[in-house]
Amino acid sequence: LPAFYANIVLLNVSNLPFRLQKLKEMFISKFGSAPKFYVRAPGRVNLIGEHIDYCGYAVLPMAIEQDILIAVEPVKTQVVQLANTNSLYLDFSTSVNNIQINKTKPQWHNYFLCGLKGIQEHFGLNNPTGMNCLLDGTIPPSSGLSSSSALVCCAGLVTLRANGKTLSKVELAEICTKSERYIGTEGGGMDQSISFLAEEGTAKLIEFSPLRATDVRLPSGAAFVIANSCVESNKAATSHYNIRVMECRLATKLLSKSKGLDWKKMLRLHDVQTKLGVGLEEMLTIVEEVLHPEPYSTEEICKCLGISLEELRCQILSQNTQDVSTFKLYQRAKHVYSEAARVLEFKKICNEAPANAIQLLGELMNQSYISCREMYECSCPELDRLVDICLQFGAIGSRLTGAGWGGCTVSMVPTDKLNTFLKNVRKAYYQTDVQRLALEKNSLFATKPGRGALVFVEA
């Protein structure tokens, strides 16, 4: 893929789009000078393939219109000053030579610092450029639409541009995936990849090792609708997400050991399948044979692997999961292998476009949701209620999207039923609750595949 500067958009200085013009005026008011460039990175909705990217499996997201937009001025002082158009997010400044990321407090500026640090370390920048930055975001925070990863990606691209460096989209995605882990989340790379690799009008099958993106044309007779449960879910603020990552890692170790593989080198469930050279259906059979449905205690895991509790905690578990006493391995592995198969089937149906494609895709989305709820246990009562409402009022398929435990659902709705669907969901879910009603304007909307990250420069 070309260096990212192929994605620079030149703008007529006398006719800036309204949002950029407003951001420019606020920047000048804040810093006393004009920004030199702007960077945009979109949020995303994952259509199918939940919690499997960090297991090495392909996912199927698309970029959305909502985004993070940053106005930037490189400065001679080696200080980065961050401000936000939303007054709820406080200003922050730090030396670019002393980046400290606090894992215990996932504040907004720490995500910017992740992207900044990732680019600095990749290039070994000893004398990085200071910057004044003003951020404007339209992605609802903690909604499962990847606001945090969009900010990391935006910051990475800001730092790249400010320091006069170039990278391909794939390289940028891989660096930003690694650098977001500075915040403590053991993510898999879907969010960063779609943020950079997205193209207007098409969803993408994102595959890993090596990273690549393939166009997936969605059926023309259906719209995808995002509905926010209005329950915030910040995956860096709790251990829910990392516990699931560790459960999949532990399942990988036990499955590998049972098959005589070098389990110490195996990290992802995909690695087991690759080493054994079998299909996903056979992996599901192996899970049934090897793992038991009852939770595993740390003592049992240690006994199975022939290691001490200290070795388990220090060599396998993440920092915020070391005190967890039981892990569900059977359920998590079952979800991952079955979800990976659903992703491939979803792409196949989109490619072949049979007459009943919308019905078949809806069934896959519904199966995905049931697996997320029952096998992965990453739903919540509000998401369950919202999925039920969406299906009741005409969605062919509906599921949670993003990490879960709150955030959004994505539903596939026949285009001829879209207006009635939106009206009924609004009435049934948002207008029955004062808090939800206040957030309704930005909580329910149809979306189309959008563009990936861009740099804007005034011509």
UniProtKB/TrEMBL annotation:
GO terms for biological process: galactose metabolic process. Keywords: ATP-binding, Kinase, Nucleotide-binding, Transferase. GO terms for cellular component: cytosol. Its EC number is 2.7.1.157. It catalyses: N-acetyl-alpha-D-galactosamine + ATP = N-acetyl-alpha-D-galactosamine 1-phosphate + ADP + H(+). The keyword Nucleotide-binding applies. Pfam families: GalKase_gal_bdg, GHMP_kinases_C, GHMP_kinases_N. One of its GO terms (molecular function) is galactokinase activity. Residues 110-197 form the GHMP kinase N-terminal domain. Belongs to the GHMP kinase family. GalK subfamily. NCBIfam families: gal_kin. This is N-acetylgalactosamine kinase. It comes from Eudyptula minor (Little blue penguin).
